[in-house]
Amino acid sequence: MASRTDFCNVIDVESTCGSEVKTSEIIQIGICTINVNKLSIENSQRLYICPQKSKITSYCTQLTGISFADVENAPLFPCVMELLFEQYELSRRPWVSWGDYDREQFIKMASIYNTRYFFGKSHINLKCEFALLMGLKREIGLVEATKRMGIGFEGTNHDGLDDAINTARIYIEIVRLFRGEN
Q1: Domain assignment of residue 100, given as a range
Q2: Is the torsion defined by CA of 32, 36, 41, 42 positive or negative?
Q3: What is the tally of structural domains in the chain?
Q4: Do residues 171 and 10 touch, judged by C-beta distance below 8 A?
Q5: pLDDT value of residue 132
Q6: Which residue, 18, 17, 13, 21, is CA-closest to 47?
Q7: Which region holds residue 152: left if phi is over 0, alpha if psi is between -120 and 50, else beta?
């Protein structure tokens, strides 16, 4: 049986945004799993969530590419989280995101929907860790970080799955460097 540390989940969320949005809600979750032993990305998916307290603004669509048509028939947050909880063992595995925004959004969404927080205690803010490891004076964006690692960004920035996969690629490169595999 795989141990808790054989896998970690990498997650990125996209949320409603814009000056007229009072309550920002998660509308897309990108998730993938890193097999830490093989240093491979596995089991990835993109899920949409229908917002209940906010609207998708034109600014949000321009930034993320997500429109109301993408989410109008999507499930609600608790249903998506129950699915992810089972499929990705959210409470057992450490999880990684690029920055703390994603973790904060999950806490906020649990409060909005009066549901539990689905994750365990082990969260890795790779944006902060990357800045520390690279000796940077400030945290940098995901696209810039992929350039600094020499791997380039793949896909579309501000797409939950593409951002999760690129975060996973950075994580894998850091582990390879640490293990002396590069």
Answers
A1: 4-179
A2: negative
A3: 1
A4: yes
A5: 97
A6: 13
A7: left
Phi, psi of 83 (to 5 degrees): -60, -50
CA distance readout (Å), 34 to 39, 61, 79: 6, 29, 24
Sheet with 40-48: list strands edge to edge. Answer: 40-48, 26-35, 7-15, 95-97, 123-125
The confidence score (pLDDT) of residue 106 equals 98
> Around Cβ 178, how many Cβ atoms within 10 Å?
10
What's the confidence (pLDDT) of residue 2? 57
Q: 79-137 pLDDT, tens per residue?
A: 999 999 999 999 999 999 999 999 999 999 999 999 999 999 999 999 999 999 999 99
Query: Encoding tokens for residue 100?
Result: 């703390």
**So what's the pLDDT on residue 181?**
86
pLDDT for residue 64 is more than 60: yes
CATH code for position 26: 3.30.420.10
CA-angle at 142, arms to 128 and 163, nearest 5°: 115
CA-only gyration radius of the chain, Å: 16
